[in-house]
Amino acid sequence: MLQIEDLWVEVQGREILKGINLQIKPGETHCLFGKNGSGKTTLLVTLMGFSGYKVKHGRILFKGEDITHMPINERAKLGLGLSFQRPPTLRGVKLKNLLALYSKESDAGSQLALAYNFEDFLGRQVNLGFSGGEIKKSELLQLLAQSPDLSLLDEPESGVDIENLDVICQMIRKLLQKEVRKNRRKSGLIITHTGLILNYVNADRGHVMLNGQIYCHGNPLDIFERIKNYGYEECAKCHLFEQGFKI
Amino acid sequence: MNYSENHRDTKDLSDDDLLKTFTPASEVEEPKDIGEFEEEELERLRQTGIDLTTPDRTGTFIQTNHSVLKCDCQTPGVELLPITEALKKYDGLKDYWWKLISAEKDPFTREADQKLDNGYFIRALPGEKVIYPLQTCLYIRNENVAQHIHNIVVAEEGSELHIITGCSTHPHLKSGMHIGISEFYVKKGAKLTFTMIHNWGENVYVRPRTGIWVEEDGAFLSNYISLKGVKSVQTFPTATLAGPNALARFNSVIVAPEGSDIDTGAKVILKAPGSRSEIISRAISFGGRVVARGHLVGLAANIKAHLECQGLILAEHGVIHAIPELEAHVADVDMSHEAAVGRIAQEEIEYLMARGLDEEEATSTIVRGFLDVKINGLPPELNKELQEVVEECRKGM
């Protein structure tokens, strides 16, 4: 599904990503752990193709196609989707209008909103005055309408209260086809700080990012427990998980 | 004589000298009947929100230059008269005439006082809730004419009325001046919606002077739309919320092409407890200059007032100047403002592109949202015009 090869990325002249290698197979969900400022969001936004994120070296393959220099919307059309951590406010643009634009079915937006208890927000201006949890819900609703094959989720559970966490995770499970047991096609790459999401969404692999590099690959629950006990630096140092693991 | 050439040099003239360059409307020959209008003129009126064929209008008033060509309102509960007749019928309209604006305010009010052409008098009778809008049109048909208008609108207690006013010039006319005095009286519990559409020629000067008085539980809702080129507009309606829980809301959508100088805004004096106000403007510059003013004055407790100006500059040399002012005289007020001007943020465009829209679709979606200020009952022709603006913005990116 996704293959990142020795990816070096610069933002405003500063080197942020320093040789990232990562592979996600169809149907897999991966988690990305790491401190604030370690480069996690930069990786997701670079994968989506945002301006200001300069690929200096390496390449990104998606479904076998080199998308390293592809325009954002073409990546989206190819099946890549991103749920933003802090999306911009679009004044006057109503959520229902966006859902209608993204979805192939005309009433998909209202059906989705109904399913996830978000009807009141359809007529609201996108992200204007939304709470943290509402932003996450709105992002996931938009992704569900778009139905990407690889969902990049940037801290989908941060700022969400316990009651809504359940709904958010239901949405993620739907997005990643977690109900499908055989031949699941949808994949995900999730940034998480709290690890809370691991209680609701099973992930196949975890990675630890530190200073723009990925140090550790392995079982996400094991990695998260290590981080909790020893901190990110220690976890990055050990290199122990899955010795012999090949990208 | 080519007046439009002549008028390019008026920049340094004083207001008094500027006024002298125009011919008073009373001195030009007038059509006797709307039947004399050419098809392109009727089309022009439609683009300005005036529809002479639809049954969905409470009444119609059309004034060309100096003459009232149509003044027709069959709806019971609404009175519509040329202002010159109303002044006779109601003994000079003593309670309303020059009560909210001083005739001595500036050279333009003086000129309107001395050279009054006509205008409309509209009154919604007590308790009448009028469903369809009443349309009025102020039209300059001859080159380089100055038109002097004075309107009085009274919404009596508990009444409801929507007025659509289209102000325009002949499609081939370049130069002219429109001076329009308007005084609005919204009485207890009444609701008056006033939608004004400007569609002028490129060398036309426009000087509206407007006062609004709102009593207890009354509401004045103003929509102002100007999408086409104009030489110079200067307008700053002032509303006084005189009774408890009175409301005044001003929405405006302004597009300034190259060469246009549009100075607009509103002032609201919140005098009574519980009164509320909102001034919201959306301005787009394609090279012209927009000044978006807003001045909220809180004089009583428990008032709520908000000012919002958003501006997009889509061409070089464009200027948007937002001047928001909040003035509170008591502590217990809730007053706020926000203003933002510039280009469409790249971040917003890319956000939509990440969901699969191409750059053009993303831009149109953002501009469409930007221009959506919830103007109810907008005639379909105007929606089409707004759509064209969205298209132009897309191209201008």
Low-confidence stretches of chain B: 1-9
Mean pLDDT of chain A, to the nearest integer, reads: 87
| Range of helix content of chain A | 25-40%
Helical/strand content category of chain A: alpha/beta
Per CATH, the class of chain A reads Alpha Beta
Question: What is the count of helical runs of chain B?
Answer: 8
The radius of gyration over CA of chain B amounts to: 21 Å
Any guess at the CATH architecture of chain A?
3-Layer(aba) Sandwich
Quote the distance from N terminus to C terminus of chain B. Answer: 39 Å
Low-confidence stretches of chain A: 241-247
For the record, the count of structural domains of chain B works out to 2
Q: Please compute the radius of gyration of chain A using only Cα atoms.
A: 18 Å
Largest interface: A-B, 26 and 25 residues
What assembly state would you assign to the polypeptide chains in this entry? Answer: heterodimer
Q: What is the string of SSEs of chain B from the N terminus onward?
A: HHEHEEEHHEEEEEEEEEEEEEEEEEHHH
Instruction: State the order of secondary-structure elements of chain A, H for helix, E for strand.
Output: EEEHEEHEHHHEHEEEH
Biggest pleated-sheet summary of chain B: 11 strands, mixed
Distance N terminus to C terminus of chain A?
14 Å
Helix-strand category of chain B: alpha/beta
Tally of helical runs of chain A: 7
User: Strand order of the main beta sheet of chain A, please?
Assistant: 6-7-8-3-9-10
Polypeptide structure, described:
- The complex is a heterodimer of chains A (247) and B (397).
- With 247 residues, chain A is an alpha/beta fold.
- Chain A has one domain (2-84, 148-238): Rossmann fold.
- Helices cover 32% and strands 26% of the residues of chain A.
- Chain A has seven helices and ten strands.
- Chain A has helices spanning 40-48, 72-78, 95-102, 108-115, 132-146, 162-175, 220-238, and strands spanning 2-11, 14-24, 29-34, 53-62, 65-66, 80-83, 150-154, 187-191, 205-210, 213-218.
- In chain A, the strands form two sheets. Chain A has a six-stranded mixed sheet, with helices on both faces. In chain A, strands 2-1-4-5 form a four-stranded antiparallel sheet.
- In chain A, α3 (95-102) packs parallel to α5 (132-146), α4 packs across α5 (132-146) and α5 runs parallel beside α6 (162-175).
- The two termini of chain A are 14 Å apart.
- Mean pLDDT of chain A is 87; it is low at 241-247.
- Chain B has 397 residues and is of the alpha/beta class.
- Chain B folds into two domains: 3-342, no CATH class; 343-397, no CATH class.
- In chain B, 18% of the residues lie in helices and 44% in strands.
- In chain B, strands 1, 4, 5, 7, 9, 11, 13, 14, 16, 18 and 20 form an eleven-stranded mixed sheet that branches. A ten-stranded mixed sheet of chain B has the order 3-2-6-8-10-12-15-17-19-21, with helices on one face.
- In chain B, β2 and β3 form a beta hairpin.
- In chain B, α6 (346-353) crosses α7 (359-371).
- Residues 1-9 of chain B have low confidence and may be disordered.
- Chains A and B meet through α2 and α3 of A and α6 and α7 of B.
